[in-house]
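Case study 2.
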Amino acid sequence: MFCPLGLSASDELYLWGLLALTLSQADDRYELVATPHWCLRQLGIVDSRSGRGGEQYRLFRDALRRLSVTSYLCDAFYDSVRAEHRDVSFHFFSYDLPTDPSSQRAWRLNWDRTFFDLAKHGASHLRFDLELYRKLDPASRRLFLFVSKIFHRCSTLPQFELRHVAVEVLGFSSDVAPRDLRMKVIRCLKKLDANGVTSGSTVTRVAKNRYVVNAGRGAYFNRKATPDANHQEMQPVLETLVHLGFDIGAAQSLLRRYPVRLLEEWCDITQAASERFGRTFFKKSPMAFLVDSVSKAHRGRRTAPDWWHEVRRTEQKTTKLSDESQKLFATIRSEVFGQSAKGTTGSKDAGLETAADILKTV
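Prediction:
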């Protein structure tokens, strides 16, 4: 794992949560176009009554920045579709965001195709109770993902050595004393037992300073999968349409009549026009402008305006890596490939490496 900007323990929630939201969409795309408010509300970080802006949104943007420059390299990655080990390299996603923090325009995340294909083929193993996941601490979250992957196929957990689970799976430091590692793992197992994810969990001593972890599949996995919610209700563009002034019925009608991609594009154009030129830009209203534009664009009689393309190009230029980020990248290149690149520091996080290892064996 190469993490030039470092990683936070909470970044895993954003990564797997955004991936789950993308996989839940009706259309099969390698991108997620949504407002930050929609994303955070779906992830349970803010609710429908929360204001747009504030600390949660800054933390969200910072997490996306860190995750976007994180790369994964493995010469023995197990591809469950091909049923063979592969030599792979991927990052998670790239993004295109408005530079103005107060902008109401949608954010665009483009998933790395290699990573997304691997995740998509293992989607049944990546679906889990997000509410349960959020209320667990970071170590218990990793254990939850790890045992979920196994309990989809087996009723009992193979006997893993305690140190392997504590260090390689949960991300605790290898310098922690064995007794303390044991207590940390037991604490995580108790939380999963209490939520029905595991049952009869034990940490058994098999030799001096050597323990193994045992656990059975809990009642959590006996629940029947509930049907997916109405895809229209999950569409992030629906919230954008409502914010523009449409009522929920009219917004759903537009979703039924026009492709989502077309609505996303013209919603962004409408919001950009409102922010750039003000309400006087519209002859009647933003809603009338959007409906007229979408209907004509759908018939091939209107294309996106030149000024909007110029706004997009300007934003893409201003969202390039800062000088500090470029120096950190240079450092990583120097440490990995030699002294041909200049730099001084680099960083790595065991937590997200564990998350990638979870996906590796799906």
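Residues 227-232, 339-362 have pLDDT under 50 and may be disordered.
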